[in-house]
Amino acid sequence: MGNDDKQRAAATCDRCGEIGIVQIWPDGSFQPLGQSTFCDCESSELRVIETDPDELP
User: CA-to-CA distance for 9 and 7, rounded, in angstroms?
Assistant: First the structure.
């Protein structure tokens, strides 16, 4: 349904360890799903830790 160009993944903040879901765009950039951030860190360093296996190529 139009989501062919995006995928979801679990990500963590390298500063505080908070885990959330991010949306990965075709250019490789990503952002927390449905919000601008998922932790209170001033400049969080998000790292993708798991992608949805159903959406992998």
Answer: 7
